[in-house]
Design a protein that fits this description.
By secondary structure, this protein is α/β, with parallel strands linked by helices. The chain has three domains: 175 residues, 3-Layer(aba) Sandwich (Rossmann fold), CATH 3.40.50; 84 residues, Helicase, Ruva Protein, domain 3, CATH 1.10.8.60; 97 residues, Orthogonal Bundle (Arc Repressor Mutant, subunit A), CATH 1.10.10. The protein contains 16 helices and eight strands. The protein has a five-stranded parallel beta sheet, with helices on both faces. Strands 6-8-7 form a three-stranded antiparallel beta sheet. The longest helix is centred in the C-terminal third of the chain and has 21 residues. The radius of gyration is 25 Å and the shape is globular. The mean pLDDT is 87. The protein binds a DNA duplex through α15, β7 and β8.
DNA sequence: AGTCCACAGGAAGGGCAGGCGA
DNA sequence: TCGCCTGCCCTTCCTGTGGACT
């Protein structure tokens, strides 16, 4: 594009009518005034947390439901409202909301405690202190609060699976040592069988109350999406059937409202970029592709270098054959390492990297026993050729292959 | 019934970087 | 500066295992 073209493109961009009235309304972090199809859960959570307004400590609550069923949204909504009322009535109430899955933020016990202390006003360095010192700082910050502190831990299952449930045990016991502060915990989990990972003492004290969030069905999703689209898009930009299509696709993904919103927002962006008059169903198909591609490629990009090399090996090996075993991956990976002059890792580590890639949903690896011929994982890749070639390019660029 | 393959995957610990307090 | 602590990546060592083969 020549420079004058670039300028005219930019000025066109300014003049162009955008499809969006309020793009935030189409993101998952946005909390709408009226939340649809979750009245029961809102009432439940509100009545459990309400005692905080009288200075009593509310029961600990455990919230279950799969991705995109409104758990975080409802928790944020209810706690926001609670906080507003408490403020108006000048009650001592502090709300702390932490997402435990945020990388480098709260994915270890140390980081969680540091983050909790930080939100209560005591800045703790991101590393360097002994964990019990961080715990003490957090404890002191709590004691200074006085009144009720509600700690909402989102995606708590991810943290417990990673570091165990001991920190939860300590958290649930913290009330015994506090004098003027009362702590109540709201645990939010995507995994319905999550409590199996926990010690029974932690389980019973943490799930004094439980709220289940069922998946949305296609009709509910459509209403939710309609509501958000009315707020997010200008009038008449959506062609008939687009909302239904997004809801139907998201309903297949276990009733995931997050996916529905992503689909319609990205479809809007794609339509806008292609200078089309309206958002049509084809844009939704392309949005579906783009979301999946971005997810996979971004995940791969953030992997350590050896993980990339292992994936590259697997991609190449599965080109001629559908499945490959761990041992074969390892020998080809070693060869690749020699070619690109990188010192290779052990088989144990590569085995671990393969599990990680499997958990990230980039490859499929199933343990299979071949009798006399041993036990191994059969590894296959189920990605579109488009995504595969993007990953290859990414790795080749990095290692000058 | 027993053997044995080719790994899976747990446990422990080393080494390094980042960062604190003295 | 030094000693210490944590997280992270990795290695070493180890035990476990489903089912074809003997």
């Amino acid at each position: 594009m020549s420079q004058s073209n670039l300028q005219s493109m930019f000025s066109n961009y300014i003049d162009q009518d955008t499809f969006f009235k309020n793009k935030d309304a189409l993101t998952t972090n946005w909390v709408p005034d009226n939340i649809l199809h979750r009245d029961e859960q809102i009432d439940d959570l509100a009545s459990i947390l309400a005692p905080a307004l009288r200075g009593d400590d509310p029961s600990n609550v455990f919230i279950y439901g799969s991705v995109g069923t409104g758990k975080s949204l409802i928790t944020r909504h209810v706690t926001n409202e609670l906080h507003t009322v408490a403020k108006n009535e000048s009650k001592d109430l502090e709300i702390v909301y932490i997402n435990c899955k945020m990388k480098k933020v709260a994915d270890t016990e140390y980081r969680l405690l540091a983050k909790l202390a930080g939100q209560l006003g005591d800045d703790v360095p991101s590393t360097g202190l002994p964990t019990d010192e961080v715990y003490n700082r957090f404890f002191e910050a709590l004691q200074e609060q006085k009144g009720v502190v509600i700690i909402a831990l989102d995606e708590i299952d991810a943290l417990v699976k990673k570091v165990g449930d001991e920190f939860l045990y300590n958290l649930t016991r913290i009330n015994d040592d506090l004098e003027e502060t009362k702590v109540s915990i709201v645990g939010i989990s995507n995994d319905l069988n999550f409590t199996e990972y926990m010690d029974s003492r932690v389980k019973s004290s943490l799930s004094e109350e439980e709220i289940i969030f069922p998946p949305y069905n296609a009709i509910e999703l459509r209403e939710i999406l309609k509501d958000r689209a009315d707020k997010g898009f200008r009038e008449d930009v959506l062609k008939d059937g687009v909302i239904s299509k997004c809801s139907a696709l998201a309903a297949q993904e276990h009733g995931d409202a997050r996916r529905a919103l992503d689909l319609i927002r990205v479809a809007g962006e794609l339509a806008e970029r292609s200078e089309s008059e309206q958002i049509v169903k084809q844009h939704v198909d392309r949005a579906q592709d783009k979301i999946e591609r971005d997810r996979v490629v971004e995940t791969v990009r953030s992997q350590p270098k050896h993980s990339k090399l292992v994936l590259y090996t697997i991609l190449n090996a599965t080109e001629d054959e559908n499945e490959i075993a761990t041992g074969d991956v390892y020998s080809e990976y070693k060869e690749l390492c020699q070619n690109v002059e990188v010192s290779e890792l052990t088989q144990r580590r590569v085995s671990g990297l393969i599990s990680e890639l499997d958990m990230l949903g980039i490859i499929n690896a199933n343990v299979k026993s071949k009798g006399r011929h041993g036990r191994t994982r059969e590894i296959s890749v189920d990605l579109s050729s488009n995504i595969k070639s993007q990953i290859r390019e990414l790795v080749e660029e990095k290692f000058y292959i």
